[in-house]
Amino acid sequence: MMNEANFPDTVNLAEVGPRDGFQLERRLIPLDLKLDIIQGLVKAGLKQIQVASFVNPKRVPQMADVEALIRRLDRSADCLYTGLALNRRGVERAHAAGLEAVEISISASDTHSRKNAGLSLSEAIEAGAGMIRTARDFGMRIIASLQCAFGCVYEGAIPVSRVTEMARRFQNLEVERISLADTTGMATPRSVDTLLSRLLPKIENTAVGLHLHDTRGLGLVNLTAGLSHGISWFDTAFGGMGGCPFVTGAAGNIATEDTDYLLTSLGIDTGIHRPAVSECSRKMAGFLERSLPGKLYRLTEEMRV
What we know:
single chain, alpha/beta, eight-stranded parallel beta barrel
């Protein structure tokens, strides 16, 4: 059901801060603080939280404690915990750690794929299909993420036809959702509109989400472009944390609090308690001893409307 602007009446925010946000930080975040933040996000009403990526800890030291973190998660909470995997070994680790959902992530850019996963584009597509089959054999819920869907700093524009065909291939493997990731923050409202106009009619029976970065300040504008196509899944990060370790200058995700404020102003329900998310952001900013990119969490009490 859509409102008058063709926007969905409700939107699901998938929180990725504990993965996408933490992975870039040079100061190691203690396990207890990670757990405290995740619990705070659960209490704030987030129903899906990406808590880890199963990558080589030598390349991403913040993810060295993922198995220990997952063992201590509150499983009684009404929240789906997910993990990101870039290869089959990552899927196997996610399953062994006890996660019921995994996000299979490959790049639509050959150069970025080689830098991020050590695979050419064609190798990555085949590997992604294999990862999905492995996760399906484990009985896991599966999200398929296409990185650099809106452009690559190394290759420029990515052909819409390539992204569409990749999405169709993964849809045929029965994934739960296709996530289009603006990894390098190059998306514009026009490119979002163009890609969704071409892609959505071809994968009508599979949910589509957007993973937007705010590198060039268009994150929430691009979200609005997605809303006009009825997109109701968006990845966000508390405080606007995040970025790709393998993309120079990559900035954070759209902030959970800022996104919720925009959606609420449009009459769209998220089920999120924004002040509780902001408290998580202030806690992390205090630990890191710097401000986070998000805006709403910084407002004083009397300004939080």
